[in-house]
Design a protein that fits this description.
Layout lengths: L1 H15 L12 H4 L14 H4 L11 E18 L5 E3 L8 E8 L4 E16 L12 E16 L4 E24 L2 E23 L4 E8 L2 E13 L11 E9 L2 E9 L4 E10 L6 E6 L7 E4 L5 E11 L4 E10 L17 E10 L5 E11 L3 E5 L4 E19 L1
Antiparallel strand pairs: 1-2, 1-3, 1-20, 3-4, 4-5, 5-6, 6-7, 7-8, 7-9, 8-11, 9-10, 10-13, 11-12, 12-15, 13-14, 15-16, 16-17, 17-18, 18-20, 19-20
């Protein structure tokens, strides 16, 4: 029983660390309103994330930008072959971004970004039917990226940045052992750091047309001192000792091509195609310090996905700009590995937004996004747990920009 339990825990962590729901595309309130397009646009300081190559086309001498999003998400599960239906009680998630960029001369611009491009927060509760797979999880990653961008000529520019990544995970699940206080429990937690890179090319083909290509490397988060804490009856403590573990979990890289078209002085159109390298997650190995807890090897074989995004921006007046957008984010999770930790499904997104400019230096961005996952039936073969999942989320973003 102990071996089966450990394997289920490992499968839980593997499923949690890679799904379309684990990648957070919310790195600009302005761009959120345009379907999160931006690789082929000159965004000023926000280009630190979207395309470092475009940063040197920044029109201001210095620019600061920051903001965040409140995510209100909901998951519903109906167990296969029964009338059992349960709804999650997720907390509000709050990913954020901060950018600062400075022009050193007419060709060279440098800057620093702090973003949260990966994360997940989900609560099913202590007494739901799948509690032996998951009760709750809180997962976050913070990327700090110093970047430089160089303008080659009037049309071309390049840029690159080094990514310092910090990761933090906490999850709880019930154990199929009974004590005086009910089910046993396990808490898994850990923190780690790693490195990656971001690079981009920007091409101002004409006054109306701009193109961009951006690459983000996969960041392999190696955890050497994760903690596993067990709460079980005294008679079983020898079989479930508190211990540490090591594991390696990739955060997938991506390649994105984008285009922008300034139709006229008021209307801007944009489109991005992002190829996400989920196939970097082929397996997950766990090594536990305690001899009583067996090491485990897990094959996952997730599949690369391609996200399509389109957006539009319309200058209503010198004070107000309005935006609309749409994105389609397919799931990388193959059949047989569908878990309640991050229920994977194809996700259409609709977005809208606006910008208010109270002065020539200051602007305020706001965006609304609605995500509804296509209903998906299936299950997690290792645990023989199957059902139908429905997921949706409402996202509210706000940001401030100051340039001088």
């Amino acid at each position: 029983m102990r071996s089966l339990f450990i394997i289920s825990v490992l499968a839980l962590m593997a499923g949690t660390m890679r799904a379309e729901g684990y990648q957070v595309n919310l790195q600009s309130a302005r761009q959120n309103g345009m379907g999160h397009t931006g690789t082929g646009l000159n965004l000023g300081a926000a280009s630190l994330h979207f395309n470092p190559g475009a940063l040197s086309f920044m029109t201001a001498d210095t620019e600061f930008s920051g903001g965040g999003t409140a995510i209100f998400s909901n998951n519903t599960f109906q167990k296969a072959g029964s009338d059992y239906v349960f709804e999650s009680d997720n907390p509000v998630s709050t990913p954020f971004y901060l950018y600062g960029a400075k022009r050193f001369n007419e060709r060279l611009v440098g800057g620093l970004s702090v973003t949260t491009p990966f994360g997940n927060s989900l609560v099913w509760g202590d007494d739901w039917d799948g509690r032996f797979l998951i009760q709750d999880i809180a997962l976050k990653a913070i990327f700090v990226q110093p970047t430089v961008s160089f303008r080659l000529n009037e049309k071309w520019s390049v840029g690159a940045g080094l990514v310092f990544a910090y990761g933090d995970v906490l999850l709880n699940k019930a154990l199929p052992v009974q004590g005086g206080e009910g089910d046993g429990q396990v808490e898994l937690s850990g923190k780690t750091t790693s490195f990656g890179a971001n690079a981009g090319i920007y091409f101002q083909a004409s006054e109306a047309l701009s193109l961009g290509l951006s690459y983000r490397s996969t960041v392999n988060m190696e955890m050497d001192e994760g903690e596993a804490k067990f709460s079980v009856p005294a008679s079983l403590r020898g079989q479930f000792p508190n211990t540490t573990f090591s594991a390696a979990m990739p955060m997938p890289g991506s390649i994105t091509f984008g285009a922008g078209w300034q139709v006229n002085e008021r209307l801007l159109l944009a489109a991005d195609v992002q190829h996400v390298l989920w196939s970097s997650y082929k397996d997950l190995n766990f090594e536990f310090e305690a001899d009583e807890v067996p090491d485990s090897y897990n094959v996952r074989n997730y599949e690369n996905t391609t996200i399509g995004r389109v957006g539009a921006e319309y200058l209503v007046s010198d004070l107000l700009t309005a935006r609309l957008g749409f994105a389609y984010d397919p799931t990388p999770i193959p059949d047989g590995l569908l878990t309640p930790e991050t229920p994977g499904a194809n996700k259409p997104n609709v977005t809208s937004g606006l910008t208010l400019r109270p002065s020539s230096k200051l602007s305020v961005d706001a965006a609304f996004q609605f995500i509804w996952a296509e209903e998906r039936s299936g299950g997690f073969d290792p645990a023989n747990y199957y059902g139908t999942y429905n997921t949706n989320a409402v996202l509210l973003s706000i940001g401030l920009n100051y340039a001088f």
